[in-house]
Amino acid sequence: MKAITTERMSPVAPDTNPVEGTVTWNPSKSLWYLSHLMIGVVGGVALFSWSALVVCGFLTVVTLCCGHTVGLHRLLIHRNLRCPLWLERWLVYLGTLVGMGGPLAMIYLHDIRDWAQRYPQSHAFFIHGKSITQDYWWNLNCGIELKNPPEFVIEPEVKKDKVYRFLQLTWMWQQVPIGVLLFLAGGWPWVVFGVSLRIFISLTGHWLIGYFAHNAGQRTWYLRGHAVQGFNLPHLGILTMGECWHNNHHAFPESARLGIAKGQADPGWWVVQALRRAGLAWEVRVPEDLPERPERELLVNGATQEAVA
To answer: What is the largest CA-CA distance in the chain?
Structure first.
């Protein structure tokens, strides 16, 4: 199997591969998710109020759009735009509030999956290759230990950043300050909806979009030799902050714009554009700025150019 190297992942031996590995239950990850599921659902029914629901919706949109898709995914992980360090840290903090993990762990979780998907074969954990119920359990309650993992190296300016190191160590505790503010403003209903229900919705929704975006939908691009293809999920652009345009993202991972075709709503891109107009973002990369990828093919009526020929 040909070795694959990405920006932060590189093989350490000839047998480095993403196929051989064991999925095991991760107690802290599982208990974190299941606790917020129980508190959010049970408490949400018992303490329902319309104001708490509005708070939940508002915080979910802000943390997922400004924090996760812009701060963590497009900015910190892919570096497809630049902004002042204070703003970058603020956006990454909002992404940490989503409740998936600290910023350094999020880089690793994204990059190991991205690296694994570029091989012709990969463990089902990385490509959402099992039934939806098993994939749900795996991704929200478990982790994978590869038999022959790659070397993972984060760029020094990120790894040594004091703010990111602090957020990595305290990412679960970052819910406490916002929980206190919510309690003072609206009591326990706001806490349950604004913290636990929001985390449950965000984590479950993120996994669900990832599952379908790797199994079914529309494709414009095909990547030869990759274990899995990304799919676009029409009509879900606003709901997913633009993350549903996953075929586009697989084809142009360094692009800050995910919804690249007409009619592909991309709220994350709208935030990036607003920052650029305000002079707070620069070096914003889009597909036109990126080099050609030998393995990328434009599909013609759903088939590769080779098949059409």
So the answer is: 66
Per residue of the chain (309 residues), what is the pLDDT tens digit?
788 999 999 999 999 999 999 999 999 999 999 999 999 999 999 999 999 999 999 999 999 999 999 999 999 999 999 999 999 999 999 999 999 999 999 999 999 999 999 999 999 999 999 999 999 999 999 999 999 999 999 999 999 999 999 999 999 999 999 999 999 999 999 999 999 999 999 999 999 999 999 999 999 999 999 999 999 999 999 999 999 999 999 999 999 999 999 999 999 999 999 999 999 999 999 999 999 999 999 998 665 544 333
Element (H, E) at 201: helix 198-213
Instruction: Give one DSSP letter per residue of 190-255, joined into a string.
Output: HHIIIIIIHHHHHHHHHHHHHHHHTTSSB-SEEETT-SS---B-TT-TTTTTTTTBHHHHHH-TT-
Q: Check if the beta carbon of residue 146 is closer than 8 Å to that of residue 11.
A: no
* Whole-structure pTM value: 0.95
Classified as helix, coil or strand, 49 is: coil
What span, in angstroms and rounded, lies between the C-alpha atoms of 236 and 265?
A: 8
Smallest CA-to-CA distance from 259 within 271, 269, 250 is with 269
- DSSP secondary structure letter of residue 289: G
Distance CA 115, CA 10 (A): 9
Within 13 Å, how many C-alpha atoms sit on residue 86's CB side? 1
Q: How long a stretch of residues is the chain?
A: 309
